Amino acid sequence: MPVRAEWQECRESAREDGLVPALTLLGRALSPGALPRGPGGHAVVPRALLEENAAQRAEAAPHVPAPLLGEETGLAVLAPPAGGAQEPPLPEAWRTGLVWLRLGASEALRDACVAYLAGRESEGTALLMKQMVKGTLAEVLIEHLEIEGALGEGPGGDAVRRLQEQITRTDRTILRLLGAHGFTGDGPGRDAYVSELLADVYATAGDAREETP
């Protein structure tokens, strides 16, 4: 399966512009008119797309399941449609595109971490220069390169699930480097939370979630 231009564009947008613009690109490219719903019937929808699609807006009211996903994020979570109709299987192109998007968001989180640690000092030395910090960031970079390599091969099925889990683990590693700053309501942890929420909402019914310490 060749790498689609839309996937790479979504990755670059997530890294440079943010997760919501990238998700908007993905939705317009791969599911014009209505974003796919996960197997549980939920959908994570950029509010811009919700406004563009009157039918989707009427189909289900926005439902926010967690305080970290407020209106300022530019996203709405749609509850399952009334009647409990079973959702069709997610297109493989969407599932793979979402991994590309999350990789870009994870790279943006790494960039933010490097910038933050470069400006913080301990005992007269930037935290970025601490050996343990440099070692952890090197491991994060290797994880990102591994994910990129796997995506270039056109993964599907279980490989997509494993890549989603790998991104989640990597994001949590970066957040630990950021300490309390990574978990403030308006800090970088919010985007990591939204990224993980996307993986959860669009996990296929057979996906077994791996517990990540």
Keywords:
213 residues, 2 domains, two-stranded antiparallel ribbon, disordered C terminus
Folded structure, characterized:
56% of the residues lie in helices and 6% in strands. Residues 208-213 have low confidence and may be disordered. α1 runs parallel beside α5, α2 (19-30) runs antiparallel to α5 and α6 packs antiparallel against α7 (158-178). The chain contains 8 helices and 4 strands, in the order ααβααβαββααα. It is mainly alpha-helical and 213 residues long. The chain has 2 domains: 5-78, no CATH class; 92-201, Butyryl-CoA Dehydrogenase, subunit A, domain 3 (Up-down Bundle). It has a two-stranded antiparallel ribbon with strand order 1-2.
Short summary of the structure?
It comes from Streptomyces alfalfae. This protein has 213 residues and is mainly alpha-helical.
Please describe the topology of this protein.
Layout: H1 5-16, H2 19-30, E1 43-46, H3 47-52, H4 54-59, E2 75-78, H5 92-118, E3 121-122, E4 125-126, H6 131-152, H7 158-178, H8 188-201
Antiparallel strand pairs: 1-2, 3-4
Helix pairs in contact: 1-2, 1-5, 2-5, 5-6, 5-7, 5-8, 6-7, 7-8
